[in-house]
Amino acid sequence: MASWVLTAMDLACQKAHRTLFEGVSFSVPAGSWLHIEGGNGCGKSSLLRILCGLSPAARGQVIWPTSDPTRPTASSNPRPDRSVLHYIGHALGLKPDLSACDNLCFDAQVGGLPLSRDQAMQSLAAQGLQSRAHLPVRVLSQGQRQGVALARLRTSAARLWVLDEPLVGLDAQATATARALLQSHVDAGGALVMTSHHDVQLQGPGARLQLSREVKRP
Fold first, then answer.
1. Where in the chain are the domains?
2. Rounded distance, CA 38 to CA 56, Å?
3. pLDDT at site 76
4. Which of 4, 41, 196, 207 satisfies CB 3.0 to 4.6 Å to 69 for a cystine?
C-alpha cells in the first residue's frame, strides 16, 4: 500500500477575537507520531478539532489522506471518514447509560464496522476492564472511562488516531498499557497525533510541536 501523510499548512485559530496560534505547519506520515505540547489555553484541543474537521481554521489548510491513500483530499475544513480517522476528545464520546461493552459495539455499528460482543470483551480485557465490562459507563471512574475510550481504538480500522490527553486519569498500570497500545499502532504503520501533559515515551519516527502560551490580538 502506498504511503500517505497528513499535512497542516499555515494554520491559525481565533477564539473570542483572540488569535490562539498562527503559522502552524507540519506533516505526519504513516508510521510516525506527533506530540503537541503547550500550556493550558494555548489551543492544543482547538488544533486537534481543526485537524478533524470539527472546527474551522481562521487561516490555512489541512490535507488529509482518504481511504484511498493515493488520492488525498485538501480542504480548509475537511471531514475525513472513519476508515481514516479515529478521534478521542476530552468528552470521550461514550454513552453513559450503556455498558462499556455496549459502548464498543454501538461505536462500531455507527462506524459500519463488524464487531462481536466477544471481540468487544477482548478489547476491554486488554485494557484491564473485564470486570467492569457490563457496568454502565456512568458508574465508572474517570480513569476507567478513559480506558473504555482507548479500548475502542483496538477495534478501529482507522490508520490515523487523533487523541486529546489519552493518558489523563490513568493509573500506572493503565498508563503503561496505553503507551504500549499507541506504540504498537505506530509500529504497525499507523500514525498518531496527540496532546498530553505526560511524557508519552514513544519510539521511532516522531516529532514534538510546542504551541505558545501567548494569546495575541488578531
1. 1-80+187-218
2. 21
3. 47
4. 4
